[in-house]
Write a structure and sequence with these properties.
The protein is α/β, with parallel strands linked by helices and 285 residues long. The protein has ten helices and eleven strands. It folds into two domains: 31-130, Rossmann fold (3-Layer(aba) Sandwich), CATH 3.40.50; 141-263, NAD(P)-binding Rossmann-like Domain (Rossmann fold), CATH 3.40.50.720. It is globular. It binds NADPH dihydro-nicotinamide-adenine-dinucleotide phosphate (NDP).
Length: 285
Amino acid sequence: MAAMILDGRTLAKTLRDELQAEIQQFTSQVGVTPTLAVVHIEGDSASERYVRSIQKACGNLGIHFVKPHLAEGTTQERLESVVSSLSEDTKIHGILLQLPLPAGFDTDRAIAQLDPRKDVDGIHYSNAGLVMQGVPRFVPNTPAGGMEVLKRYAIEVAGKRAVVVGRSMVVGKPMALLLLQSHATVTIAHSRTLDLAAVVREADIVVVAAGHSKLVHGSMIRPGAVVIDFGINVQDDGSMTGDVDFASASEVAGAITPVPGGTGPVTNVMLLKNVLHAAWLSQTP
Ligand code: NDP
């Protein structure tokens, strides 16, 4: 059986079109342009490419984009002062602190300077706490995108057995909580899980965010299961693979996100949706 492809590129286009209309409505109603500030320390080319792609997407959608200059070799103090002044600046609605920070930086101290009402990546502990409580303010973009894929493809979550492989703060854990909130029975697997294949085989919905190319093979997947692959692994030849072995998994699964073209494009739109949400929040006391 060949799985249905959960096409993230087409979905992202639909989401962008919807968002563009919502941004136009905000701008004409409030008279303010939603504004995103990206805090990025220069020096990593992959990260710089990602920031440029966000800038372009902002331009296309009518979001104002700001990027303070933070040269390679900047200090923790300068980073914190930039985040803190953006937090206080009423013209800035959303702040994206580009992680991971270079070696030697204290990430928690930098995050602590973020106004949680501008934290469009959902990394501040108070936003993580709200996700935990089931009343999210900002959901981290990657799991938000995964849930959007499930929703838009009308995949039933309530009552299903879901296995999330990976327990990071930005992907695995929040995804597990969101699935739980949608009434799935959730298991989180990680590097110490014994017999990963047996755990994954129990799932109606398999979500993989492990950072290991092709970790989950088709032989581990229950026939007909839905597979959401968050993995982004760039190979030596420049090609990209997921954390799921697409060739074998797509023979067994009922539906699957490809890599590239699955969760990735949707993630970027979720960030921009959060910028609009932050702009609306700025209008409330
Ligand atoms: P992390 O490295 O922070 O976390 C990886 C998680 O996977 C850890 O919890 C780790 O377990 C677990 N893990 C590692 N190896 C195994 C294994 N052999 N078996 C089971 N579990 C394992 O990664 P992230 O969560 O940041 O990212 C995960 C993936 O998602 C990466 O491929 C990344 O590129 C991608 N990503 C995709 C995005 C998108 O938009 N689609 C955005 C962000 C990330 P333990 O906790 O025990 O160490």
